[in-house]
Amino acid sequence: MTRRKCRALKASLDHRDPLVFDTRELGRRPGALKRVARTVDAPADLGIEVIGVPQGAPLEVELRMESVMEGVLVTGTARAPVEGECVRCLEPLQRECEAEFQEMFSYPDAVDRSRTADTGGDAGDTEEDTHVLEGDLFDLEPVLRDAVVLALPLQPVCREDCPGLCPQCGALLARDPGHHHDDAVDIRWAALQELAGTMGSGKPADEDKAPRDSGDDPQEK
Description:
Blueprint: H1 3-8, E1 20-22, E2 33-41, E3 46-47, E4 51-53, E5 58-67, E6 71-85, E7 92-106, H2 108-117, H3 123-128, E8 131-132, E9 137-139, H4 141-151, H5 190-200
């Protein structure tokens, strides 16, 4: 199913949506510019598994919208607080994220002309990669999601030299730099260690602990 057909199954964009922007003032005049700054509540699931922007956190968006022949070229920056956990010590972390993006939102008739002129390749694939204006409106959320996810660290750490957790007991090594364990005894040497302990106590290592019957004395014949 092409992007155009997918859009037909969805409700029209709502200009009251904080991530929907209006380009009407540009008037399809190539070279016309409009700058917009807006702070919105971050949508849900804006991030990756280990780190992301909390839902409802203030998301600052600055846009530069420029009218060109094919549509509106949108260049922008998004800033937001992010929360997650360190992949080494699993402690919570907080920081600021800044993501930059640039995307073309094409006029519907420009897409039609491009598809008609395209005599090679798969036009369906081209449509899937194209963002199209709906009237004078465009939805920034899909572009914003891609930009933020790419700006996030895949392996976030609370600090570059985070020592992580003790592999034996899980202790937080940053709080106890001298933390260590006695060398574990190799199971292959456990029997020798037991033998050495028995010999040190003065008892024969192979002493039979079961009581003997007097009738089983080997000296009796």
